[in-house]
Design goal:
The chain is built from eight helices and twelve strands. The protein is of the alpha/beta class. Strand 7 and strand 8 form a beta hairpin. The longest helix is centred in the last third of the chain and has 18 residues. About 4% of the residues have low confidence.
Length: 227
């Protein structure tokens, strides 16, 4: 049996439920997004192996969503659409879809397409590859890069090291002394206030710019990055 997770993005509830039942019967686990508005958040909050993405959605269309996903992830995308003309298929593939399936389709063909995409997958979702994340904020140590959606956040070396350390230990309250020891090192001679200073730097460059709170203060103890 399969054990991959599939994100179904389909606004027609009957079709979405049908897809869910068929996929779960085949051994996949599924999550449904009826509007497509939360696709990026879904990818950030949990690992998925494939996305079934309908083209016609109530808000942002599937082509636009596909393009945004491709900016941050290599996850396989199988686009679903009632449009069977060549131009529509080309548009789907040009926006980053790996395959395009025209409605109506048989369950056998759908499952065959999914199996083929999963076999071809190389590395899967790059967000989970040599990276750390807190909510929708991703840290790529190899590239020394911090990204929220399509926004790249520039940090100094020490700011980057501190944010990475908090992400590596997310949801764990860290004492200032512990942070100082692990980020600045045993040889550092100075006041633990340096931790507070750099936390302020991070908040001004990350939390305040993005408009979300990633780093929380625990009074009398230290700091925690909460997912």
């Amino acid at each position: 049996m399969a054990n991959e997770r599939i994100l179904i993005v389909e606004d027609e509830k009957k079709i979405a439920r049908f897809l869910q039942l068929e996929l779960e019967h085949a051994g996949y686990s599924c999550v449904i997004d009826f509007t497509g508005a939360s696709v990026i958040d879904h990818i950030g909050q949990g690992h998925f192996d494939l996305i079934l993405l309908d083209v016609m959605l109530p808000g942002e269309d599937g082509l636009s969503i596909c393009k945004r996903v491709r900016e941050i992830s290599n996850i396989p995308i199988l686009m679903l659409s009632a449009k069977d003309d060549v131009d529509s298929k080309v548009a789907g593939l040009d926006h980053g879809a790996d395959d395009y399936l025209t409605k109506p389709f048989s369950s056998k063909e759908l499952l065959a397409r999914i199996r083929a995409l999963l076999r071809k997958r190389v590395g899967g979702d790059k967000l989970n590859e040599s990276s750390y994340h807190v909510k929708d904020l991703y840290i790529f140590p190899d590239r020394h890069e911090v990204q929220v959606g399509t926004t790249i956040i520039n940090l100094t070396k020490k700011e980057f090291e501190l944010l990475t350390y908090l992400a590596q230990n997310k949801n764990t309250v860290l004492k200032r002394e512990q942070i100082l020891e692990d980020v600045w090192g045993y040889d550092y001679v100075g006041d633990t206030n340096i931790v507070d200073v750099y936390i302020r730097y991070l908040r001004s460059k990350v939390d305040e710019v993005v408009g979300k709170k990633y780093i929380h203060t625990v009074r009398g103890i230290g700091y925690v990055a909460r997912d």
